[in-house]
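hey can u check if this looks right to u? its 135 residues, i copy pasted from the old doc so theres a chance i mangled smth
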Amino acid sequence: MKKDIIIPKVENVHIVAIQEWSDDFQENCWYAYLLNATNETLEMAMLISRAYGLINGEERNTMQLRHAFAKVEPQTAVKIEFLENNVLQLENEFMLSYFIGSQMFDKKFIFKENSINKNAKIDLPIISNQGIMAV
């Protein structure tokens, strides 16, 4: 039965971290975005995010945050959440599930610990901005 289950590969959909100015904090802050670089609308996109790892030899975990987007239009980016400075030194995980038509897609995206930093920025697809892409 397992051989009959087809799990499609997620392509051209990314979780990225972008640094932008925050009027609230009066500094550049990191935000996670969902990028849809496909030509299809993502429907019922659901995300679960969390961070975990060691800080000064002590195990740390954040609570899970859940996000849902009814539709993510093609060639667009939507802001997911603020990434607080203390969690940047942890591994940040984003579990994404969405539909294109009747087909469900699912992928885990990870920012490794300390990978979100201004020296690691690259040009991002579909938006004229630089940032960090989760793997």
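Residues 21 and 28 are 4 Å apart (CA to CA).
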